[in-house]
């Protein structure tokens, strides 16, 4: 059944710009490895050298439109997850990044309103059961775009591969 | 209501009469292409799950391309894992060093891409292969693992944008200029989640090579795929490479598109995309003649024989400017050999260019031409994001091979028509 924690709390790391691409999330020069901890050491380093120093397990990345555009490297999701990031909250996502996120059971949430209201370091509470994001520092709330049924099912199953296995077990 | 090519291919591969945009379907895959960066993690995932056999080894193609010949120990390990896995799986379509190429170039070149196919690869430029009337889309390693295990994958049926290209390309203007123009108009997310379909009279004057450059860069507009209808030029290309049967799909007259763009290619001029977004395209007459430390001609976008021919035509009898380095990277071994036989390698060498074996190399800042801080590079590749070809402070400009060759000679951004005249 569901492996999802329904309430998540952490600090916001805000990159307001649109089109933060996978070369910025994890530069291609590090793609000769795929261990999450190793990738995490270089997460976001070309746009924010101190990211990995500041980030704490459970934190969130906030971003503008088309987050994760560029290459298909799933390493972008792994680097963020390896760094302890629990979810990305963006105005919108590039297709392959979004697909990679849900295939990994990683939360990629679309919520332009929350991105409008957030500042670096704000304490955030993500209430998945109610589709609500609370900015505890500012006392504001935003409702996020609900995941499609299919994406939710994938995330609840823990990603695409466990999902496929579950389906295979059900039919055999 | 009719269907377009993409919808027809996806319907046929998911056992349906019709599909509509935004539906989630499970499509059977005809070809899965594997390279050295995204495949080893996929293989590791399958091993963890105890899945030891791919669904059908005859539908898989493997070629190491990103960091080969291996640039360091870690990348050697990746290529080794890829090699061992393909041996253990008995995958015959394997292109080892000396016979290898950048995956999106070698797959069609060696006759593995047939019209009507569904193709995935753990690489965003998989869209390239859509120029042969296929649905080809890039995926990550988890998707790749699922595809290798089951031979199918979930897709959201994309909406399709139609690009009608009319006219003839003017002298000195190439298909790279067309796609850079389109991306400059719609932006790097202008086709987000969508298929980009091309039609129109201008296609008639574009070779398969030129067409691949256009579909290659669908992802630079955020597209899920790029696709062109099959015609005499594509049929001839395919038939020269394989006898396998295939099915051609064509868009119905009343097919539905989310948007239609009409572009008269007669009006185009050489375009350069300024740092650091592929959508920063400007006509060459409108930009400063910035000095270039490096010129890079290659990649899955523009490392094909036609690209090398035009670059050689411009470089022939000229020298690369002092203070500028020029690197030429044929996209496949076959192209390298053709260039050798045609005397192009000699022209490049005499002009003072370095010619590499096929590799992704510096296109992704891997090796073979990585940029230092504040260095500038005019490149025929597809992305100029921050840090893409090296140091985050380096600056990458994107253009056609002709513009790149002319720029190599002068050392500053140069209109290729200045050199093509004489
Ligand atoms: S040549 Fe560049 S864009 Fe093409 S597959 Fe290789 S790294 Fe990617």
Reconstruct the topology from this structure.
The complex is a heterodimer of chains A (172) and B (422).
Chain A lengths: L6 E9 L6 H4 L10 H5 L10 H4 L5 E4 L11 H8 L4 E4 L4 H9 L3 E4 L1 H6 L5 E5 L4 E4 L4 E4 L5 H9 L2 H12 L1
Parallel strand pairs in A: 1-2, 2-3, 3-4
Antiparallel strand pairs in A: 1-5, 5-6, 6-7
Chain B lengths: L4 H9 L10 E5 L2 E4 L4 H10 L11 E3 L10 H17 L3 E2 L8 H7 L8 E4 L13 E4 L2 H10 L1 E5 L3 E7 L8 H12 L8 E5 L8 H9 L8 E3 L4 H8 L19 E6 L6 E3 L7 E3 L10 E5 H4 L2 H11 L9 E5 L3 H9 L2 H8 L2 E2 L20 E4 L15 E4 L2 H10 L6 H4 L2
Parallel strand pairs in B: 2-3, 2-5, 3-4, 5-6, 8-9, 8-11, 9-10, 14-15, 14-17, 15-16, 17-18
Antiparallel strand pairs in B: 1-7, 12-13
Helix pairs in contact in B: 2-5, 6-7, 10-12, 10-13
Bound molecules: iron/sulfur cluster.
The site of iron/sulfur cluster has 12 residues of chain B, from helix 9.
Architecture overview:
With 172 residues, chain A is an alpha/beta fold. Chain A has helices at residues 22-25, 36-40, 51-54, 75-82, 95-103, 112-117, 149-157, 160-171; strands at residues 7-15, 60-63, 87-90, 107-110, 123-127, 132-135, 140-143. In chain A, helix 4 links the parallel strand 2 and strand 3. In chain A, helix 7 (149-157) crosses helix 8 (160-171). By secondary structure, chain B is of the alpha/beta class. In chain B, a hairpin with a 7-residue loop joins strand 12 and strand 13. The A-B interface holds A 18-19, 21, 23-24, 27-29, 31-34, 46-47, 65-66, 69-75, 77, 92, 94-96, 99-100, 103-104, 148, 150, 159-161, 164-165 and B 24, 37-38, 40-41, 44-45, 49, 66-67, 71-72, 74-75, 77-78, 122-124, 126, 138-143, 145-146, 149-150, 154, 188-189, 192-193, 219, 222, 224, 277, 364-366, 370, 383, 385-388, 390, 392. Iron/sulfur cluster is lined by residues 66, 102, 104, 123, 125, 299-300, 360, 363-364, 381-382 of chain B.
